[in-house]
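ok so heres the complex, two chains, lmk if somethin looks off
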Amino acid sequence: GAVVSQHPSWVICKSGTSVKIECRSLDFQATTMFWYRQFPKQSLMLMATSNEGSKATYEQGVEKDKFLINHASLTLSTLTVTSAHPEDSSFYICSATSTGSSGNTIYFGEGSWLTVV
Amino acid sequence: QKEVEQDPGPLSVPEGAIVSLNCTYSNSAFQYFMWYRQYSRKGPELLMYTYSSGNKEDGRFTAQVDKSSKYISLFIRDSQPSDSATYLCAMSKNSNSGYALNFGKGTSLLVTP
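and the predicted structre for the whole thing:
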């Protein structure tokens, strides 16, 4: 069945460096993908909507220059956390919607744990 | 006021009990309602999906949506220790190019043997 793959699952980076997280739809095309962030014991919060071939749409309070999103193809969206700081340590997860004859289905990646030290 | 409110619990029940999980919301534009289960350090897993008001049953799980009260519920019958997880309600208001979900905070459920 349709699967969304997210990589890496775990990443540790030094403060001030940048880290890239990939989100791939493995057997369907997604013109739109979504990036969420989840802090411990908190809900998943939508960060941005990734649009293939155009600029991402960011939610209020999310810095677009810090969280760079690139959706260069119909199966790949990337989130780059630039100049990461310890407060950026969180669980980042993407989702994509598969459109089929029986309707739309949302698939989530497995998520990426980012620790900034 | 957050758009989706959910009691974080924790909720502890004995094995075999009926579990009731609930969410309220404030945005009347929400049309799609979902319940996800999330195990520790894993991505959310879709349990139930409902469009507009009504009930939906799938095995031991029943989802109810009352749009007039802006209230949704998930019932788990004959709960099992393997049901221990965090349950997140989520809802969406558009379906044109994909679903941006608004999540509740999640309710932590513990089913004890």
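quick notes: The CA atoms of residues 10 and 74 of chain A lie 24 Å apart. thats all i got rn
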